[in-house]
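Lay summary. Proteins are chains of building blocks that fold into shapes, and those shapes determine what they do. In this project we predict the shape from the chain. Here is one chain we studied, written as its sequence of building blocks.
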Amino acid sequence: MAAVLAAGIFLGPLSTAACAGAQAADPFPSVAGETPAHVSHRWAYASMLGGAGLVGLSFVLTDRANRVYADYLQATDPAEVTRLYDEAQRYDRWSATSLLTGEALFAAGVWLRFLHRPAPRRVSLEVEPTRCVVSLRF
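And here is the predicted shape, written in a compact code that computers can read:
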């Protein structure tokens, strides 16, 4: 009796393994892989271009501030001195603002283009004769 039970225990998995080959020989249904959706990088390129433009503008504004400051150093009229000093300060602030904003925009564009990976859509609407109309993916 013990020998029959031992044989059943050891040979039981072999019989199911032998049947597995016959089951695996059936053709598997083909499943089409999803092609990744094309992601537009327009905002990234626009951000980098705008940032580079603002950085370039900051150099123009710095040059203008330096010329106005040179005029301030040469001025002798007190009203003219005050006006030129205020104008030089204004150009200097605009230049710093333009530089910092341009650097931030350029960095954001680099992040959007090269580092950021958008999350896959969880709900999609597909109209095809062989698919569901609305699919929810987990």
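What the prediction tells us: The chain has a mean pLDDT of 82.
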